[in-house]
Amino acid sequence: MRVSPSRIVAYEVLEAVRADEAYANLLLPNRIDRSKLSEADAALATELTYGTLRMQGFYDAVIALAADRPTDRIDPPVLDILRLGVHQLLATRVPTHAAVNESVVLAKRISPGASGFVNGVLRTVSRSTAEEWRGWVEQETRGGADAKLAAVTSHPEWIVRALRAALAREDRADELDALLAADNASPRVNLVALPGLGDETPDDLGDPNRFSPIGLTAPRPLDLVAAHEGRVRVQDEGSQLAALALSRARPVTPGERWLDLCAGPGGKTAVLAAEALAGDAILTGNELVPARAELVRRAVAGVPLDVRVVVGDGRRAEASDLGAEDGFDRILLDAPCTGLGALRRRPEARWRKAPSDVAELTALQGDLFDAAVRLLAPDGLLAYVTCSPHASETHGTLTAALERWGGRIEAVDAREVVQSVVREPLDLAGEGPTVQLWPHRHGTDAMFIALVRRVG
Ligand SMILES: C[S@@+](CC[C@H](N)C(=O)[O-])C[C@H]1O[C@@H](n2cnc3c(N)ncnc32)[C@H](O)[C@@H]1O
């Protein structure tokens, strides 16, 4: 018996994610191409890889119970094979015999001495349903209610707490289960049709997004991207709204200078470029990492606007070096963050983050915020955006900056702006003037959007 090519690809990506800190969303397309997988096999490899990585915490708890030993006493490659097998048994329609047999054959290739062990553990797992395993994992997990919830929903406990706290701020802590479930579901590929660059609207191209006026989904999204090169791109709906919150916050005066301070890889820069073209504004993108600056250049290549892309540390950026002696009229600060709002798209991310990252990132966000304010022209607008709902990275960073800058900056009502942009009103809970989007409530990544105006 041979192992199907989709399972080999999935296994190789799991191994690279574990051993080499690879990113599944970057490596997987590469491996799919290299193995020349058919469309159906590519879809299966994607489902197996993403599903296994997202649910890894829960699957490890199941494996530990079924093997009657902690997972740190299982050889890592064998553990990868088991995780992949458990995912097939508990979360897919793959028949039991295929899930077990292919895992055993894979084990014979990778770690021959362990094939009997793999067979035994997976047969034990296959004898109970996912629901039954959830019950046992909950019962056997040591610690309080949060530890148990974290184990069965496959999130680190500190992330469960942070997400609950963010929802509680909006008086919506009762949505936590729905949010954790949304993190574990495969999001649809969402597209943006850069505005003003062609005759077709999102309605002409596919199924228009519920909220973003420039977003859509389509049955074969990548074909559409290829057919409308540079104009139709993959982008989450929340990211589109974040860029539009800045470009549509008020009418554009021709000649306005715009800056995207942390631009890489350039998804929002592309939207800003299309908007700048329509309004006759001048756009500069800045990015710390040269390779990511190159991605920004490629992202804006489909927009007939001369976008200057600069490599530099945003904390030390000077308006005059960036070609705006008198400062910028609009700045997007899409800050480096923990990415806790995009866990469904970055399947391994939850296992790589630690609470200590939050402290480090909030310090960086504060420095970048101050740099952005210094770069603003009088009356200029700053959009502070994160793809994290963590209170420290959102309200914490914003409140601290408003305090540091005293009366020299003021918050602008981002809710009013975003509600005026969307196709249908968003259910925004809690108090404004900031916007927090959510995967479970809006179907977007959990983007946070704040607008600030430089006074005088
Ligand atoms: C959240 S991402 C931006 C995503 C981008 N706006 C988009 O929509 O594609 C943050 C970016 O900030 C960059 N970055 C990190 N530290 C920076 C700094 N000190 N100055 C400028 N850019 C920085 C990172 O390399 C990363 O590309």
Automatic annotation (TrEMBL):
S-adenosyl-L-methionine binds at C262, A263, G264, P265, G266, G267, K268, E287, D313, D334. InterPro entries: MeTrfase_RsmB-F_NOP2_cat, MeTrfase_RsmB-F_NOP2_dom, NusB-like_sf, NusB_RsmB_TIM44, RCMT, RsmB/NOL1/NOP2-like_CS, SAM-dependent_MTases_sf. The keyword Ion transport does not apply. Pfam families: Methyltr_RsmB-F (PF01189), NusB (PF01029). One of its GO terms (biological process) is RNA methylation. GO terms for molecular function: RNA binding; RNA methyltransferase activity. Keywords: Methyltransferase, RNA-binding, S-adenosyl-L-methionine, Transferase. The keyword S-adenosyl-L-methionine applies. This is rRNA small subunit methyltransferase B.
